[in-house]
Amino acid sequence: MTLRLNTIAGFSDLQNSTLTAGKRARAMHVAMIINNAQFGMVRLEFFQDKYIDGNTVILPVSAVDKYNYSRDELTYFWAIKSTQNASTGWLTGPDCLWYLSHRVQQWDPTPGADNTDAGKVFSEEWYRKSSVHNPDGAKSSDGVLLVTTCAQRAMSNLVVQYTPHFQGDLTSLINIDDPWSEDLARRLNVAAKFSVLKNEVIYMGEFKHGDTVPTPISPADGYPYTYAETQFIPSWRWSTQGNLYREPDNYLGQLQRMEMAVAPTTGVVTLRVDYKGDENSQYTTTHGRIAVHALTTRSVAIGPVGP
Predict the structure, then answer these.
(1) pTM of the complete model
(2) Dihedral-angle region of residue 124 (phi above 0 means left; psi in -120 to 50 means alpha; beta otherwise)
(3) DSSP secondary-structure letter at 248?
(4) Domains of the chain: which residue ranges?
């Protein structure tokens, strides 16, 4: 059964101090809790499509409630689907790949930042001949990227004053003809806000071999995630030296194998780029640079209701 919502939910940081025994029970507070729970259902969505150099990733529309995402609610990670030219199905340079650079321009949240190119796809691939002494390099815009758009509603402006905690099964507190209680109201309020922040995608930046990706911090409530609560998603930025995008030394030859990993328990980055030189020569390097996103899931542990 497909999830559908008839209205687009918003978020309200309703404070538990408002839900106090002896105060008038208001329908608008119940509506806020319901809206927050619905917002938590759809706050994080993923969309995927293929793009080439010069494309701009489309602004997605939610299939659940038809919400139109804005550019400042989107981040992107990508995988190399193909290194060929999308139009011809073949390469446009001599012999084999030499080095490459891919990226999708992220939204810059810095006030006043120029985000004209946000969402734009860049693909640059260089080819070379087999000769070590005369590589005769050729630049192209070949390459097809499989881009995943991470859509997070209110990504840049969601603020939650107190960190919510998982509330467990509340059904025992909900019975026919039982009065609306302070404990139930507060726990439902916290549970709804927890659903909004349970999963987040946070862009961590770019890293080279030997770097350590730190544990992420929620921009919404400052919650410090642990490595156990984080799954890192890396994307290749380029295949040459980590600190500098430039052509590799000629003697290394043509590009061969590429491997990347971020250790799940320490965040340490491991990169490997192999080259094939003349005859039987083969070289293994720690070249490369990656962009990393963190997919976070808060530990489900019953905590205090909060203030």
Answers:
(1) 0.91
(2) beta
(3) P
(4) 1-42+177-197, 43-157+198-297
